Amino acid sequence: MTTNNSYSTPQLCALVLFRLCVGWHFAYEGIVKILKPNWTSYPYLMDSGGFLGDFFKEMAGNATILQYINILNEWSLLLIGLGLITGTLGRLSSMGALLLLGFYTLSHPSYIGASYMMPFEGSYLWIDKNIVEMAGILVLLLFPTSQIIGIDRFLKKTVPLFSKLKLI
User: Fold this and answer.
1) DSSP E strands: which ranges in the chain?
2) Which residues of 149-160 are buried (b: 16+ CB within 10 A; e: fewer)?
3) Tell me: the pLDDT tens digits for 88-97?
4) Is the pLDDT of residue 5 over 70?
5) DSSP designation for 159
6) Residue 16 belongs to what domain range?
7) How many domains does the chain have?
8) Which of 106, 111, 91, 114 is nearest to 165 (CA)?
């Protein structure tokens, strides 16, 4: 995908603002989990439902796998967030965000009759906050801004391999 530098100023500002907000959301969630020594994804995974509920519960039941999941979740959130905020490896950061949110959605799908012990902000049917954020991140993939306002602007020139690998 090539970057279209013909966004209007309001379009570019809105897209960058959205990228910053989503980036902050991811980075802050990661920081909170990293700095909280007793944080674990165990309760969240054990509360999983849907057709993959047993799979997520099985992972939570294995202490070694759970430790890897915790580390991957914490640091993925932080690195994805920082990538979006700074416009570094924008495509990779966006795809990572979609993957992570996809796992959250598969773990706790919103459908009629679904009830979870973990607190949620509201009642959802099919479309929850993760799906909304995934749709927004898809917009960032289709209308990239990191090559215009972001570190990717410089990486594209200095490390052409990143563009070739479609990380930018």
Assistant:
1) none
2) ebbbeebbeeee
3) 999 999 999 9
4) no
5) -
6) 9-164
7) 1
8) 91
Q: Would you say residue 4 lies in a domain?
A: no
The 10s digit of each residue's pLDDT in 102-150 is 999 999 888 766 667 665 666 677 888 999 999 999 999 999 999 999 9
Is residue 3 in a domain? no
Amino acid letter, residue 29:
E
- Residue from 110, 84, 85 nearest 98 by CA: 84
Cα three-residue angle 136-141-146, rounded to 5 degrees: 105
Cα 168 to Cα 24, 86, 108, 130: the distances in Å are 19, 12, 31, 24
What percentage of the chain carries pLDDT values higher than 90?
77
Place of tokens 């039941």: 61
- Assess if residue 1 is contained within a domain: no
Distance separating alpha carbons of residues 68 and 46, to the nearest angstrom: 16
Report the alpha-carbon distance of residue 67 to residue 42 in Å, rounded: 9
